[in-house]
Write a structure and sequence with these properties.
The structure is a homodimer.
Chain A: H1 2-14, H2 17-25, H3 29-36, H4 41-50, H5 53-62, H6 65-74, H7 77-86, H8 89-98, H9 101-110, H10 113-123, E1 139-141, H11 147-157, E2 166-170, E3 176-181, H12 182-187, H13 194-197, E4 205-206, H14 211-221, E5 225-229, E6 235-240, H15 241-259, H16 274-292, H17 294-301, H18 303-308, H19 311-314, H20 316-339, H21 348-376, H22 383-413, H23 423-446
Parallel strand pairs in A: 1-2, 4-5
Antiparallel strand pairs in A: 2-3, 5-6
Helix pairs in contact in A: 8-10, 14-15, 17-23, 20-22, 20-23, 21-22, 22-23
Chain lengths: ~450, ~450
């Protein structure tokens, strides 16, 4: 694509407006996004002006917010208006929330009255709630129509809504009374009454339902859209599947960051300032550092032991590293199971039994591996020392696995998020306990004091 | 819900069929799934028979494969037939691939001819390719119709397809010539020709496109469905958004497992056998163990050093733990950026500069923290020793961060998956290098040999 970027730059100099349009509209959106920040500001504008309107909207929605901002700022008032008109109200609201106050002012001025109203309505809701995802552009009609009338009405209004897949039925107070899929309307007879074909038990979410919970409901039912209602069952808007995909992606990034011992936002790397990167990393790193220094206390308690047998020191990193890894494996499986709703606290017994069995087999394998490795490869330690270390490692693994399996279940039961306990904190806790197990076993087997 | 389970059990004994149906169909599918494996086999069948057909299909699609199997095996031939008829061909094919050969035989016999044909067709494709997600039930018509005729035709055929959102236009050889959304047809005038309103540049994926790539294309464009074509641009089927959500979830699980140092399948925890759990964990644990034992060699090289200053031993776990954590943080950010298509190899320079700046600030903070902590809290070490350890930690952090940031970019450039390099392997490599940096710094500052 670097080549095609070059090609298009040449094109721009040599070819007609028509040819350019064709070439640029033939580039996949993903490629445009990848190379967008390498374009000069005039080039960006030139490229952008050549795109078809729907591709402009796709591009603007997918660009990082800093590029969105620059681009929209540079557009002429008229271009800005046309583009913003074309954006879905929920995307527009997200965009308004992401940009800086000055640009927001300029954008606000170019909005039509309807878009202003919709944006103000959507801004009332919390970004992280179900209502933060919804669009107020849905199809709602009265239940007294028949199929033929309803279809005529849908045809008149289809252009203004985000999806035509479902048609909602509301009463005069906007309370949700039922739903019918367009497919159902299409396959019904002309004279059937909407009243008779709607589903009255509608799956809905409340405005303050957590976004991730709403995503899961849409997912379980494979719905294209999910209605959002208030306390009085009044229809506020609908969440569509594309918003749900965005929520799942963001959740994924958050979970991965937590496993990598980071908190904070999920903004793109290249857009994050150095201070925001530091802020994301320092708190957890500091907590883990202070927790880890407890190992100094454990070690200083056993100091006489490793002074008497320095071979024990040689294996400290291996022992705690392997203990940490097996605890992390176990914790990862359980945390993922909890997150996916496949595991619950009432499975505690079954999980523990399974993990004990698994840990014993793994402990024996790894114990044997380290004995063989350290006797036959440098630093070639004595067999009785190797066996001591192997046995200690087996104990550490069993212990670490049990901690790794039970901690997430207990933490989850206490209503906290077990993901933050994952890899790093777990590994640190296991380091501390693992060292204790290691030295106690060694003391016993080597007959030291 | 444990209560509502009890309630319904009481219901079953006391109330009429009609009341039971209402009660059971009022339970959200997610709750049914959670408690399903606590039901006795007769209860499962009784519950299941009371569900509405569409809820039966939702439930079967969401149950773990072992429960699917038991349930389907226990159904009467007639019930089995009705249920399987109602499943979408792509879900049915997934189901057929998940169950054991004996059950598969029984299921196969209860399929109608059309379902058999569709399943055989879908089984030809690789499960991991785009074609492995598709359904052959889409709407395709000839471009010579006008809007009114097309709409009539859609109404006749809407019941048989997975989505009515898009209508595809194919020629006699089934080659894809265009697409039009149902919404567009609805808003067009009756006499418009389909030929004139279709989009001829259709976004498609090839049958052998990777599933995750196909998911990303649907995602970028916010499409409800994406057509799959063969080498000759013949339309084979369509991928719908719900399949894409499943792919994203599975990708998420795989990535999280990799970060937790595990390979293998993504089957549910409670369904995995002990041997499959061991198989998922032992290979990586063994590799990491052997890699970690290189630390023994590093330590035995520096043995004279820590025998002379045992305080150095006390901080081994803290130093390598913190180094590992900062390397992991950096690697996690870069790997996620790569996976989301936000970072590329051509960003190497910018990433490195940013990480050097971040690492220096973090290194100084953590260095200061460990000095303060170890001088003022037990084991109360000497100031000059503390400063040595603080400086060494800063160096280790800078070094680990740079490794964490550059390794994923290089590995990705070489065409390999950087996720498997994440947390655990990175931490092990950083342990080895970190210890070396630690002891070299300490030797220099403490003037030892």
């Amino acid at each position: 694509m670097s080549d095609s970027l070059e090609n298009i730059r040449e094109f721009i100099e040599q070819y007609s407006e028509e040819d350019l349009k064709k070439a640029i509209n033939g580039i996949p959106i993903d490629d445009l996004i990848e190379y967008w920040d390498q374009l000069a500001s005039e080039e960006e504008l030139r490229f952008f002006s050549l795109l078809n309107l729907d591709r402009k909207v796709d591009l603007i929605n997918s660009l990082p917010s800093s590029s969105q901002e620059t681009l929209v700022t540079d557009l002429s008032v008229e271009h800005k208006r046309v583009l913003l008109e074309e954006m879905e109200p929920d995307d527009l609201t997200d965009f308004m929330q992401a940009i800086s106050p000055e640009v927001r002012d300029a954008v606000w001025k170019s909005l039509g009255d309807e878009a202003k109203q919709e944006t103000l309505f959507l801004l009332k809701f919390d970004e992280d709630d179900a209502a933060g995802l919804m669009t107020p552009r849905y199809l709602a009609l009265s239940s007294s129509l028949n199929v033929s009338q309803a279809l005529g009405w849908v045809r008149k209004n289809a252009a203004d809504v985000e999806t035509v897949s479902y048609i909602y039925v509301v009463d005069q107070l906007k309370r949700l009374r039922g739903v019918v899929s367009l497919r159902h309307i299409l396959t019904a007879r002309d004279e059937d009454l909407i009243e008779d074909i709607i589903i009255k038990k509608v799956v809905t979410v409340r405005e303050d339902t957590d976004q991730e919970a709403a995503a899961r409901i849409l997912e379980t039912h494979d719905f294209v859209a999910l209605p959002v209602v208030d306390d009085y069952n009044r229809l506020l808007g609908i969440i569509t599947f594309d918003d749900v995909i965005d929520v799942i992606r963001e959740e994924q990034t958050e979970d991965i960051y937590k496993m990598g011992a980071m908190g904070g936002g999920t903004e793109r790397y290249l857009e994050s300032s150095i201070w925001s990167l530091i802020g994301k990393r320092v708190p957890w790193l500091g907590i883990l550092l202070v927790a880890a220094t407890l190992t100094t206390n454990v070690l200083s308690y056993f100091e006489s032991l490793f002074v008497a047998a320095t071979v024990l020191t040689l294996f400290i990193p291996t022992i705690i590293g392997t203990g940490g890894n097996s605890g992390t494996q176990s914790a990862t499986l359980i945390i993922r199971g909890l997150a996916m709703g496949e595991l619950h606290f009432h499975d505690f017994g079954r999980v523990l039994l399974k993990e004990i069995a698994v840990a014993m087999v793994i402990g024996i394998c790894m114990g044997a591996l380290i004995v063989v490795r350290s006797v036959f490869l440098p630093p070639f330690i004595e067999m009785h020392e190797a066996i001591t270390i192997g046995v200690a490692l087996s104990f550490v693994i069993v212990f670490a696995t049990l901690v790794g399996a039970s901690a997430p279940l207990i933490i989850n039961r206490m209503g906290m998020d077990p993901t933050v306990m994952a890899a790093p904190l777990m590994a640190t806790l296991i380091d501390i306990a693992g060292l204790t197990v290691y030295f106690l076993t060694a003391r016993l087997l080597l007959g030291l004091h």
